[in-house]
Every structure is written in C-alpha cells, then in structure tokens.
Specification:
By secondary structure, the protein is of the alpha+beta class. About 30% of the residues lie in helices and about 25% in strands. The protein folds into three domains: about 230 residues, no CATH class; about 40 residues, no CATH class; about 140 residues, Trna Endonuclease, Chain: A, domain 1, CATH 3.40.1350. Helix 2 packs antiparallel against helix 3. This is McrC family protein.
Length: about 450
Amino acid sequence: MAGITIYEFDALTACPPSAPNASGLRAVPKPVFDWLEAQALAGGTAWLRLMQKGGRRAVQALGGYAGVIRAPDGYQIEVLPKIGRATSGDQADARARQLFIRMLCCLARFRHIQTESACLKAARMPLLEVFIGEFLRAAERVVKRGLRGDYVARRGNVFALRGKLQMAAHLRRNLCQRDRFFCEFDEFSSDRPENRLLHSALRRTLSWTAWPAHQQLARELCFVFAQIPQSAQPAQDFRRTRLNRSMAHYTSALAWARLILQNESPLIGAGGHDAPSLLFPMAEIFEACVARHLKRQLAPPFTLRVQAGSHSLVRHREQGWFRLKPDLLIQQSGENRLVLDTKWKLLDNARGNSEDKYGLSQADFYQLHAYGQTYLKGQGDMALIYPKTDAFRQALPVFEFQPPGLRLWVLPFCLEHQQLILPDCGSLDCFWSRSAPFQFSSKPAPAL
C-alpha cells in the first residue's frame, strides 16, 4: 500500500514524485493532498494547518502528535516523533518507530502491546500494520484459549417445551397449532457482546491491512467467528462487556477492538468516511514514559504522584481558580520534596547564548515558579525534563529564581535507556535508588 513517512512539523504538498524537493516539502499524490487540505479547511483537526512554502500550497503536520493518517483511498501518512530526526545514525525512521512503540506502551490503555515483538516488526513495516498485527495476535490468543459463550434469554414458538411456557402468548398464537409451544428460555450461545465486537474489528482490520501475513491471519480468524454476527451497535456492546476472571484473556483484544471500532485514538480524523487517523499526543506519552520509569527507580522513602492538583493559583469567592497541576511530584511522608514537569520539546546545549536560551520557553519558567511557590513554599528544587538528543545530552547549569530559595534543573531523559541524566553536583542523587533496574548516572548517557 502506498504511503509516506514524515516527522512532526513536516510539510506536505501536491507535486509529482519526480519533482525536486523544493523548500523541504514532501510530495503526496494530489487526491491525498486535496483530502488533507479539505480536512484542514473543515476545522476540528488539531494536527493539520494550511501554509504556503516555496511558492506552493502546503499542509503541515503540527508537532505534538505522532501515529498514522490514513486517507480514504488507503494512502498512509506515517508521522514519527521529531526526536528521530534529532538523532544521528542510520535507519533513523526504524529507530524512531521502535522508540515510539516503547513509549506508547507506557500509556495505561496500551500496556498490552507486546513490546519486543512489536518493536522488531516496526523496523520493517508501517505503524498501522504494527498496530493491526498486535490486534490480530491478541485475537488469536483469545481463539486458542476458546471463545466464551453465555446464556442468552430467548422467546420463541418452538416444537418442544423449553424453559417457561408463556401461556397468554401460547394460546393466542397456537390455538390451531398444537405441536408448538411459545416459551421463554435461556440458550447457551457464543453470540455475546465481546465476540460480536471482535468479529466486527476483524472485518474492519481485514479491509485496512495490506500485509499478506496479516490478511491471511485475519481471514482465518474471521472464519472462526463466522457463526457470530457482527456488532450492529459497538458503543452499546462495549457497555455490556463483562471482563470477569473467566474473560481475562479477552482484555487485550477488546482494548484494540475499541481503538479500531470507535476510533478511540486520542485524536481522530474528521468526516464520515472510513479513514482513521490514529494520532497520539506525544506530550502525554512522554509524561507517562517518564513517570513509569521514575516511579520504579525512586529510593524507598519517596513516593511519586502524577498530575497532583491540590493547589490553585488564586482564590475567588471561596473557590480555587486555575488549578496548578505539575506532571510529577515526589513526596516523603506526605511532604512535597521535588516538583518535576515534562516537556516534549527539543533543546540544544550549544544555543546557550542570551538570545536563544537553549530553546527554553519563558512561559515554562513562569509555570514552574508558580509550582514552587505553592507546592514547595518557595524553598527547594524543581526540574524540567526534556527528551535527550545528540544536541542535549547533559543537564544544564542550575537556574536560581529571585529572590533566592527556588532552584530549577533542566534535565535530559534518555528514552533509549529509560534513564534520567542528573547534574554532576549530586544535588538530586538522594531521590533515586542505586539498585534500580536502570541505573541513574551523573554522567551523560552514551549517544544513541
């Protein structure tokens, strides 16, 4: 299936593939560009904007989102995290794809991804095919462990007495048919919401995939579900699902089915056509990734809270307005010790002059100052955590707020090794356990 791989902030235009890549524009077929342009004009898409570059009309994939955009004709636009472009080395696309999948596993809704197998496949197939493969393998595990049935209430005019005879309806219908009985009974059947949803998701997946192995597996699984009708109302069937102990092996497959049938990606495309856009907010994924690995690497006296929101910026008419919610908060015996905030931005150690300021945002510093005044009472350490790249490989010198009392550290987090790079001074070492699976280091991690 035709497609293109781009990074966050790349711009697309309509021009023939043989045309030169003017002004850094990437070329897509004109019907695909027309569809993207219509999406941007229609509004409601936070991942596209219209622009003009090099004298051409173009659409830009805005930063902060990664995943797959699928046009109505099946053309796939794979949007990879921008950190892949900021990292040197061969096979940058494959490595960025693998890194994105590892990060995606940190979100609670996607922890069922089989990380190693998915990352291995991501080196040679598009993201959409990787997601389809994960769903098919989850559905295959359900089939191998056996489809679960359930007793379903039925009413019907049958030839043998079953369950409870409905006398009024029986006399009304069978006055002249003495060989029939109008009964209400329970029948054991595989026609239950969970199986209907999996069947519908398999059928839709079969129409999406272009990978021969996935097509074959999807057809085999559809044959197993052939006697089970597809879900006519997926939203209602999802509300009826019951994942008790005997249904635990359905959890992973149903999570993927929800994504496929209801487009429950954090961001979806507009329009009524069958063109899913499975895009995910990288800021949320980066925060979840950092939180997951820091939590298991904390020293025993400390605990980690995510999205703590116990303070407000102002009080107005006995109400707290403008909730202050740092991404991460480290506490000891209920006392706040360290405030951390994650930012999905790329810094550059070489841009430390007065104009560029490493690429830091003044608004982020204002935000951290407000956190420090409320959660640390104006005294203590805070940290801004950014993804580690070749241009940002070690902690920046400390920033001291005025008046003195609050200190802010700007630290890189190595996504490849799940490791926070601490400053050489050792000021933050007390929070981390040296016996953690991924050791923290006061030295820069090796280059990716």
